[in-house]
Give the backbone structure.
Amino acid sequence: VSTAGKYVQMFEKKISKYMGVKYAVSVTSCTAGLHVAMIAAKLKPGDIMVTSPITFVSTANSALFTGCDIAFADIDKESINISIKSLKALSDKFDKKIRAIVPVHFGGAPCEMEEIKKVSDNINAKVIEDAAHALGSRYKNGKRIGCCENSSMTVFSFHPVKAIATGEGGIITTNDREIY
Ligand SMILES: *Cc1c(COP(=O)(O)O)cnc(C)c1O
């Protein structure tokens, strides 16, 4: 028996159309969404996930739930988002042990996704965007955060302190059929 009625599917369709992405999957919170995303990214003990230290605890915790290690990149002092320079230094240091990079669009301000994608392509890591603050935000190229142009998944929060609320709630977007 499913507790997810027709409105959940309508919501997923509307969100994916709004963001210009193929698939959207509703979850009970952004934390749950990030956890599911880390599992979909196949993180395991011995792997490293890299994220920003300026975020909510669940960004790092969601990866810790898989038993992997966390490495914090520094932030860029202008944008408050993950520093590309610091990310590159970590990728040189840990190389292929890094299996996921999780940029956080702090306060809805977009991260430098093209640069992040380049680093992740070099080490074949997955990019998962923590977009808990970023519903309705756009990248510098005008596309909406959630379109997953430079990531495998993007995760949003509908907690009461975020842009819109569903009580608690979250959604994952992806263009990857297998991940979906
Ligand atoms: C709020 C928040 C989350 C977690 O969202 P929940 O829906 O409360 O689980 C994750 N990441 C960031 C950056 C947040 O601000």
Remarks:
- The chain has a mean pLDDT of 96.
- The pocket of pyridoxal-5'-phosphate is lined by residues 29-31, 55-56, 58-59, 104, 130, 132-133, 157, 159, 170 (CB under 6 Å).
